[in-house]
Batch of 2 targets.
Target 1
Amino acid sequence: METKDIQKLIDYISKSDLDEINIETADLKLHIKRNVASVVVQAPASVPTVASAPAPAATPAAPAPVAEAAAAAPAPVAEANSKLIEVKSPMIGTFYRSAGPDKPNYKEVGDSIAEGDVVCIIEAMKLFNEIESEVKGKIVKVLVEDATPVEYDQPLFLVDPS
């Protein structure tokens, strides 16, 4: 099974009611489980929990403002630049802008890209997956720091299609 097939399977599961799937062949074992609990953790309900337990509040309080700031930051950019298209991560993993520490970045801000151009690499389970652009245009902004974890469907780049 190739990476694109696995990505299609993940897309299918994310749009369906399935929470878990197991596929096992002679060459491959694949177990995909939707993490429903993480959505609950990010809900505003965690704030009252912090208020009721002041001692452990220091640890959960730090991620909550970061998550709120991250969620609030893209909104003004999207409103101000409604014509921009987001290149999103097709998987969970670690984002890399280049093929190696001593290699140049695949694409920089201001570079033109075409459909099929490699824009970055996402490492997932010790596999380095080249991420190709599905849009044509000019890169306006890189939204993710190099060598940081990314989530499925997280915006990586903003592209001006004109």
Note: The beta strands are 20-24, 29-33, 85-88, 93-96, 112-113, 118-124, 127-132, 137-142, 148-150, 155-160.
Target 2
Amino acid sequence: MLIGEYKSKIGEKKRVSLPKKFREELGNNLILTRGYEDALIIVNEKLWKKIATEVINGSFINKDIRDTSRFLVGSAKEISTDEQGRFVIPESLFEHANLDKEIVFIGLVNWVEVWDKEKWNERVEYLKTHGEEIAQEISKMSRKENE
């Protein structure tokens, strides 16, 4: 299961090392793409195929599906890790996430997010401040789905 928070530094040529625990779960052939809130997302090929199937099965007539496809699929890059789990973050994705020198890998069960350390700290503060409101909204959504 992909869980936990791991800090890392960005090396020469925008190279980073995926934490060993995540490497063991995800494997070597990965997809790196844009995420929301200025993060990046890492998934393995199996989950990526599921995402791609959902996109393919969606109607290109639907603007939201097109926009989601552009955002997630249009920016996706296949990456391979070396023996130490290192890979290079492509420039377009590096810029999307406003990465600097330090990053944080966040395991979210099925995928891993990559955040600039300062952006992640800001997000954690936001979540601390708004956690109760977020929980209430999720609770409302769950009740509507069960009706």
Note: The chain is about 45% helix and 30% strand.
